[in-house]
């Protein structure tokens, strides 16, 4: 947890997987939010400024029996996906080759510049974003545009994903969804990757991102007795009636 000392509030951020170049340093992906007190505070600090952090707090332990993870990430929710992928894939050996498939949604192409989907075609995306259903906004009126390779240099997170794919060839696949290109994660996208799963057990779906994104995908988390609880699985994942999949909201 990072603290904003003036307001005495904190925010949890998931560290990125360790990098060989950074040694024992902790790395975080924190996007500046115009309405986020902690992110605005952190982005306003000069390099080298001491900060107060607490943790780590383990929110989800990935069982050693897990063989396949589908990670549904919205925006900066990609950081937990990379950490989960690192945790799962480093267990790989000659007889255990776990798989991770990431569905990553972003508002703008620049957030995932250079990212090219591994399995998704233009016809396989939903035609309206999750927030139009949460906030009753009108869906886009233009036809979907296929996600293709960006002409700009890969973004930081795309480079992190590509590094993970290079380290574990054949075990990591990613599909990119970009709101401004009218590509959105829907039931068909989730059904496609769950039905293609090769394992009959040890399967997890992890959902991470803004609260509204998590609620739309898997239902909201709940507060009870001063603790945040998972709450029942709802949203479009419940509508899919998936069997043999453990669902966890981050």
From TrEMBL:
One of its GO terms (molecular function) is oxidoreductase activity. It is found in: Membrane. CDD domains: cyt_b5_reduct_like (cd06183). The keyword Iron does not apply. FAD binds at residues 11, 13, 38-39. Its cofactor is FAD. The keyword Repressor does not apply. Residues 8-59 form the Flavoprotein pyridine nucleotide cytochrome reductase-like FAD-binding domain. Residues 1-20 are annotated as: Disordered. It comes from the Eukaryota. InterPro entries: CBR-like, Cbr1-like_FAD-bd_dom, FNR_nucleotide-bd, OxRdtase_FAD/NAD-bd, Riboflavin_synthase-like_b-brl. Residues 71-112 form the Oxidoreductase FAD/NAD(P)-binding domain. One of its GO terms (cellular component) is mitochondrion. Belongs to the flavoprotein pyridine nucleotide cytochrome reductase family. This is FAD-binding FR-type domain-containing protein.
């Amino acid at each position: 947890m990072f603290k904003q000392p003036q307001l005495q509030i904190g925010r949890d951020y998931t560290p990125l997987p360790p990098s060989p170049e950074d040694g024992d340093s902790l790395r975080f992906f924190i996007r500046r939010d115009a309405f986020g007190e902690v992110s605005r505070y952190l982005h306003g600090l000069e390099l080298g400024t001491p900060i107060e952090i607490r943790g780590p707090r383990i929110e989800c332990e990935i069982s050693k029996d897990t063989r396949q993870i589908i990670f549904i990430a919205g925006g900066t929710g990609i950081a937990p996906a990379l950490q989960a992928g690192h945790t799962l894939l480093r267990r790989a050996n000659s007889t255990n080759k776990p798989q991770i498939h990431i569905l990553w949604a972003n508002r703008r192409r620049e957030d995932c510049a250079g990212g090219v989907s591994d399995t998704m075609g233009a016809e396989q995306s939903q035609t309206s974003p999750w927030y139009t259903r949460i906030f009753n906004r009108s869906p886009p009126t233009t036809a979907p545009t296929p996600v293709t390779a960006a002409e700009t240099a890969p973004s930081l997170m795309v480079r992190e994903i590509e590094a993970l794919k290079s380290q574990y060839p054949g075990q990591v696949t990613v599909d990119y969804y970009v709101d401004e290109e009218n590509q959105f994660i829907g039931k068909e996208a989730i059904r496609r990757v769950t039905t293609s799963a090769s394992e009959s057990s040890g399967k997890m779906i992890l959902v991470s991102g803004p609260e509204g994104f998590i609620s739309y995908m898997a239902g909201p988390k709940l507060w009870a007795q001063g603790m945040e609880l998972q709450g029942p699985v709802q949203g479009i994942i419940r509508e899919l009636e998936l069997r043999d999949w453990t669902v966890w909201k981050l």
